[in-house]
Amino acid sequence: MDKEKVFWKKQFIGYLLNGQIDNFFYFGKWIPGENTALLAEFYRKIEEEENEYIFVGDEKKGMIGTIAEVPDDIIDFKIIRWYHDGLDNIDYKDLP
Protein backbone atom coordinates (compact mmCIF):
# COMPACT_ATOMS: atom_id res chain seq x y z
CA MET A 1 0.00 0.00 0.00
CA ASP A 2 1.45 3.35 -1.07
CA LYS A 3 1.00 6.04 1.59
CA GLU A 4 1.92 9.62 0.70
CA LYS A 5 1.71 12.64 2.95
CA VAL A 6 -0.52 15.55 1.94
CA PHE A 7 0.46 19.10 2.91
CA TRP A 8 -1.42 22.40 2.68
CA LYS A 9 0.35 25.66 3.44
CA LYS A 10 3.37 23.38 4.02
CA GLN A 11 1.60 21.74 6.99
CA PHE A 12 0.63 18.07 7.17
CA ILE A 13 -3.12 17.52 6.70
CA GLY A 14 -3.45 13.81 5.90
CA TYR A 15 -2.51 10.85 3.73
CA LEU A 16 -3.28 9.79 0.18
CA LEU A 17 -3.30 5.99 -0.18
CA ASN A 18 -2.69 3.99 -3.37
CA GLY A 19 -2.31 7.02 -5.64
CA GLN A 20 -3.13 6.70 -9.33
CA ILE A 21 -2.60 9.02 -12.29
CA ASP A 22 -5.30 9.76 -14.87
CA ASN A 23 -4.00 12.25 -17.45
CA PHE A 24 -3.01 15.31 -15.37
CA PHE A 25 -4.93 14.22 -12.27
CA TYR A 26 -3.75 12.21 -9.28
CA PHE A 27 -6.16 10.56 -6.86
CA GLY A 28 -6.39 8.04 -4.05
CA LYS A 29 -8.05 7.18 -0.77
CA TRP A 30 -8.12 10.15 1.64
CA ILE A 31 -7.13 9.68 5.29
CA PRO A 32 -7.41 13.07 7.06
CA GLY A 33 -4.91 14.04 9.74
CA GLU A 34 -5.75 14.77 13.35
CA ASN A 35 -5.46 18.58 13.26
CA THR A 36 -9.18 19.32 12.98
CA ALA A 37 -8.73 23.11 13.09
CA LEU A 38 -6.32 23.04 10.16
CA LEU A 39 -8.55 20.64 8.22
CA ALA A 40 -11.60 22.86 8.81
CA GLU A 41 -9.66 25.86 7.46
CA PHE A 42 -8.46 23.80 4.46
CA TYR A 43 -12.02 22.66 3.62
CA ARG A 44 -13.39 26.18 4.05
CA LYS A 45 -10.74 27.63 1.71
CA ILE A 46 -11.54 25.05 -0.98
CA GLU A 47 -15.24 25.92 -0.76
CA GLU A 48 -14.50 29.67 -0.95
CA GLU A 49 -11.57 29.88 -3.35
CA GLU A 50 -11.37 26.56 -5.17
CA ASN A 51 -8.01 25.52 -6.59
CA GLU A 52 -6.02 25.53 -3.36
CA TYR A 53 -2.41 24.37 -3.67
CA ILE A 54 -1.50 21.07 -2.04
CA PHE A 55 1.77 19.16 -1.89
CA VAL A 56 1.81 15.36 -2.01
CA GLY A 57 4.86 13.26 -1.24
CA ASP A 58 7.11 14.09 1.69
CA GLU A 59 8.98 17.04 3.13
CA LYS A 60 11.80 16.70 0.55
CA LYS A 61 10.11 15.85 -2.78
CA GLY A 62 6.75 15.26 -4.37
CA MET A 63 3.99 16.79 -6.47
CA ILE A 64 2.40 20.22 -6.37
CA GLY A 65 -1.23 20.35 -7.40
CA THR A 66 -4.46 22.24 -7.17
CA ILE A 67 -7.51 20.83 -5.48
CA ALA A 68 -10.98 22.10 -6.35
CA GLU A 69 -13.30 19.92 -4.23
CA VAL A 70 -13.36 19.05 -0.55
CA PRO A 71 -12.19 15.44 -0.28
CA ASP A 72 -14.44 12.79 1.24
CA ASP A 73 -13.27 9.18 0.83
CA ILE A 74 -11.20 10.09 -2.24
CA ILE A 75 -8.84 13.02 -2.72
CA ASP A 76 -8.02 14.13 -6.25
CA PHE A 77 -6.07 17.05 -7.62
CA LYS A 78 -4.55 18.40 -10.82
CA ILE A 79 -0.77 17.98 -10.97
CA ILE A 80 0.95 21.23 -11.91
CA ARG A 81 4.59 20.36 -11.22
CA TRP A 82 7.07 18.55 -8.97
CA TYR A 83 9.24 19.77 -6.12
CA HIS A 84 12.67 18.29 -5.37
CA ASP A 85 14.30 20.76 -2.96
CA GLY A 86 11.96 20.47 0.01
CA LEU A 87 8.76 22.20 1.04
CA ASP A 88 10.65 25.01 2.74
CA ASN A 89 12.14 26.10 -0.60
CA ILE A 90 8.80 26.47 -2.39
CA ASP A 91 7.85 30.07 -3.09
CA TYR A 92 4.13 30.55 -3.72
CA LYS A 93 4.96 33.49 -6.03
CA ASP A 94 6.51 30.99 -8.46
CA LEU A 95 3.35 28.87 -8.72
CA PRO A 96 0.94 29.41 -11.63
Distance between the termini: 32 Å
Order of helices and strands: EEEHEEE
Quickly give the structural class. mainly beta
Helicity range = 10-25%
Global Rg? 12 Å
Largest sheet: 6 strands, antiparallel, barrel
Strand content: over 45%
Shape: globular
What is the number of beta strands? Answer: 6
In the predicted model, the low-confidence regions spanning at least 5 consecutive residues are none
Number of helix segments? 1
If strands are numbered along the chain, what order do they take across the biggest sheet? 1-2-3-6-5-4
Q: Average pLDDT value?
A: 94
Structure summarized in a few sentences:
The chain is 15% helix and 50% strand. It has one helix at 36-49; strands at residues 3-8, 11-22, 25-32, 52-57, 62-67, 74-83.
Could you please describe the fold and organization of this structure?
The chain contains one helix and six strands, in the order E-E-E-H-E-E-E. The longest helix has 14 residues, at 36-49. It has one helix at 36-49; strands spanning 3-8, 11-22, 25-32, 52-57, 62-67, 74-83. It has a six-stranded antiparallel beta barrel. With 96 residues, it is mainly beta. The protein is 15% helix and 50% strand.
Descriptive tags:
96 residues, globular, 15% helix, six-stranded antiparallel beta barrel, mainly beta
Topology:
Blueprint lengths: L2 E6 L2 E12 L2 E8 L3 H14 L2 E6 L4 E6 L6 E10 L13
Antiparallel strand pairs: 1-2, 1-4, 2-3, 3-6, 4-5, 5-6
